[in-house]
Amino acid sequence: MAHDIHVVGGGLAGSEAAWQLAEAGFRVRLSEMRGSGETTAAHQTDGLAELVCSNSFRSDDAEANAVGLLHQEMRTLGSLILREADRHRVPAGSALAVDRDGYSAGVTAALGAHPNITLVRERVDLLPDGPAIVATGPLTAPGLADSIGQATGRDALAFFDALAPIVHRDSIDLDTAWFASRWDKGETKDYINCPMDKEQYLAFHQGLIEGEKTPFKEWEKDTPYFEGCMPIEVMAERGVDTLRYGPMKPVGLDDPKTGRWPHAVVQLRQDNASATLWNIVGFQTKLKHADQVRLFRTIPGLQNAEFARLGGLHRNTFIRSPELLDGTLRLKNRPHVRFAGQITGCEGYIESAAIGLLAGRFAAAELRGETMASPPVETALGALLNHITGAAVAETYQPMNVNFGLFPPIPGRSRKGDRKRLYTDRARAALGEWITPRPFEEADSPPVSAPVVA
Questions:
Q1: What pLDDT is stored for residue 20 in this prediction?
Q2: 188-222 b/e with 16+ CB inside 10 Å = b?
Q3: For residue 121, is pLDDT > 80?
Q4: Average pLDDT of 79-101?
Q5: How far apart are CA 356 and CA 20, in angstroms?
Q6: Do 190 and 181 meet the contact criterion of CB atoms below 8 Å apart?
Q7: Were 48 and a residue from 41, 108, 334, 440 both cysteine, which residue would form a disulfide, CB within 3.0 to 4.6 Å?
Q8: Cis peptide leading into 437, omega within 30 of 0?
Q9: How does pLDDT run across 141-174, given as a tens digit for each residue?
Q10: Measured between alpha carbons, how far apart are the two ends of the chain, in Å?
Q11: What whole-number distance in Å separates Cα of residue 16 and Cα of residue 440?
């Protein structure tokens, strides 16, 4: 089938971009190298929108959380990623967590069945010559990465992203561990808590320091970690109590056996719909597998743990988007090409999908010969886009999750809790004005004048 636009990459951003374009009536060639005999260091399947790290899209609270607000805005705009996440949701308190296999299968089936999408399992080594969206993510294949480097005239920046271990539920000792909400916030008890006394914690901390780590390859040396996905052993190196104020924080978690907070707590979150798999929250690691098994089995409640997946480490790359992309995500020196997802320097599943959604909508408007206004910076979508394309200092540009710090300040003084509500109320009003009239009208087919690439 001839196509109007080429989307390269079948991750969350590429999947969302392809969906938005196809729903607008445009014919999309969606290229994904997994399934063609190619793979990456992090992926395990050839499913579209595979979640390679956590199974959580983080908070779904649209009243007091920027990422929850982003969820709501994307649902309003017909996001496939959010639709399938809602369909494959697993218990996680106020967070939106999914059965990762069912979720990926749902996205793959929806895109594969769409009459306007041709899914091609192929590796793309050169930037396309016609209209395109590049959403190949942080593990872009070397050939395409070289092509991007030649087009941008700059080396990509990079940071490390580590995978957390996943444990089989029936190997967790619930005579020692107990269920509670995340740091005892909320009424549901969706997290398994493993308590540590001071002696156990200090021994665990020392084990993280002394454990054998995966050696760096030459091209990985001197690459900075991203603060939002810090390996647990790197946190441990920052001080003996760093973990107790981070992923092992015991605040609000009364051990039912003692009635008191433990010295530290390890939390696990449900990872699939059948609740047979649980991931260790915040335990991204580059420890070698043997040391992971030995050390993590010293955690009370996990002494007999069986691991469905151990932690790992991979390198992420992203471009200097504020310098290289315009306000609609087009490469300034090759405006027929847009970028979307983590390769633009946004961080997080939902942020990547959100930029894919915007790239798809910007491209659809352009194919119609129209110009789509950017979402207002008062919205979560607009604030995130503004960070990516309008950051003041490109030289220090770093990956960022959506947060209220990216939004324009609320005028005047207000209490913290009230301020969050003011942000969300303002965002909803701004989004409503932006989509009325809609940025583009959906149609069964693109206009005759739309460019067609064979």
A1: 98
A2: eebbbbbbbeeebbeebbebbeebeebeeeeeeee
A3: yes
A4: 96
A5: 9
A6: yes
A7: 108
A8: yes
A9: 788 888 888 888 766 566 666 678 999 999 999 9
A10: 8
A11: 17
- CA-CA distances (angstroms) from residue 58 to 93, 236, 269, 285, 440? 10, 24, 12, 20, 30
In the predicted structure, residue 189 carries a pLDDT above the cut 80: yes
d(CA 357, CA 340) in angstroms, rounded, equals: 9
Find, among 255, 298, 273, the residue nearest to 105 by Cα. 273
194 with 177: CB under 8 angstroms?
yes
The whole-angstrom distance between residue 261's C-alpha and the CA centroid of its chain comes to 32
- The values of phi and psi at residue 315, to 5°, are -95, 135
136 is written with which tokens?
Answer: 């190949």
Q: Distance between CA atoms of 297 and 299, rounded to whole angstroms? A: 5
Which residue in the block uniquely carries the two structure tokens 């107990």?
178
The full set of domains in the chain, from first to last, is 5-156+319-434 (3.50.50.60), 162-315 (2.40.30.260)
Q: And the tokens for 364?
A: 């659809």
Is 7:135 a contact under the CB 8 Å cutoff?
Answer: yes
Q: What is the pLDDT of residue 183?
A: 72
Is the model more confident about 53 or about 121?
121
Say if CB 143 and CB 123 are below 8 A apart.
yes
d(CA 86, CA 106): 11
Residue among 121, 142, 120 nearest 36 (CA): 121
- Eight-state DSSP code of residue 227: G
